[in-house]
Amino acid sequence: MSLNQLANSLKLPCGAIIKNRIGKSAMSENMATKDHRSDNSFNTLYERWAKGGSGLLITGNIMIDHTALGEPRNVVFEKGHSDLNLKEWAKAGSQNNTHLWTQINHPGKQSPKFLSKTPVSPSAIGLRPPLNKLFNPPRALTESEICDSIERFAYAAKVSKDNGFTGVQIHGAHGYLVSQFLSPLHNQRTDQWGGSIENRMRFVSEIYKAIRKEVGNQFPVSIKLNSADFQKGGFSQDESMTVVQHLSEQGMDLIEISGGTYEAPVMTGGRKNSKDSTRIREAYFLEYCEEVRKIVKTPLMLTGGFRTSKVMDEVIGNGICDMVGLARSIAVNPEFPNELLAGKNVESSVKQLTTGIKFLDKIVPLEIVWYTEQLKRMGRGEDPQPTMSVLKAAIGTVFNTGVQGFKKVRAK
Hints:
Elements: E1 10-11, E2 17-18, E3 22-24, H1 40-51, E4 56-63, E5 75-76, H2 86-93, E6 99-105, E7 120-121, E8 139-140, H3 143-162, E9 167-172, H4 177-182, H5 197-200, H6 202-215, E10 221-226, H7 237-250, E11 254-258, H8 276-280, H9 286-293, E12 300-303, H10 309-317, E13 323-326, H11 328-332, H12 336-341, H13 358-363, H14 366-379, H15 390-411
């Protein structure tokens, strides 16, 4: 390659500078202690990634409420819950002039049955089959609970800044609570939080304003947002662009583009009906990102599908996006960013995962389960294992979920 565009630095609207154009997108670690605190395994994992070359590392889901978890071993930031390891985690992950941002989240109704008897959502609408076998029907949030959730997001951002993390990301994608509010399929409220897109985006808008009030104007605040839900009657691309434009005008520092939900998980495998040109260019949401670039100046990070150094370099060089987001590639090869920055003609070895059993593939989030095991290996100081059995990881998850669910019932 004649010029490695990935090596260029990026200045954010808040004034912070990211040393290069490679961002590690969030991957749920699911390796917190039983009481939802981080430990040395997080330090070990993120130190390795910091040395791997990415300019930006974004943590996995950090929940804002211990009663609303996406997974049993999520880290939680909330009032009355201290975590003495946070400063060490932040220090480890910000080595090598690396930005380390926390991704803060509320799962809404995407909280498994064994964790939430009655999860919450904008409206009392359950997930479709077969996911209804894993997630209980939710109840609708009250007005006071919505306001409380907004305050919890802001508090989690404050905890992040106070402990040395260099930025924060709101998880507004993949069918979690913020995404549920944005979707007319899941948000059928008739008050100020539902109906028009202006009302449905009020929740995320208020979260952003509350966070900014806590952390100030010089601290990076970002969001991960769906380009669309890819579901009939769901959050559309046009609506997504409306939200992007609004958040850009509010002062968002970085917008990460993704897409899909648990019900339509295109974020892990692209769209089956995507155009050949998009497939050739690898990035799942590239065409959407091209359109967004026309209407906002806010830095954009495009995540999903990148495999080759050539394509990554081209999208940055052409100004389509400002950063490329990588996740699975770095989970199996933590040195992948350094290889890209060296100007090598490299390609990710990531492939679609399958157990070979269709039903199991449908009910088990393989892309979460299998890659989480890779993260846990690195957290123990071991190397990733790309040849790890997908079936074994899936069966282990089903077994552990069943055991934990049983234990919860026994504990009542």
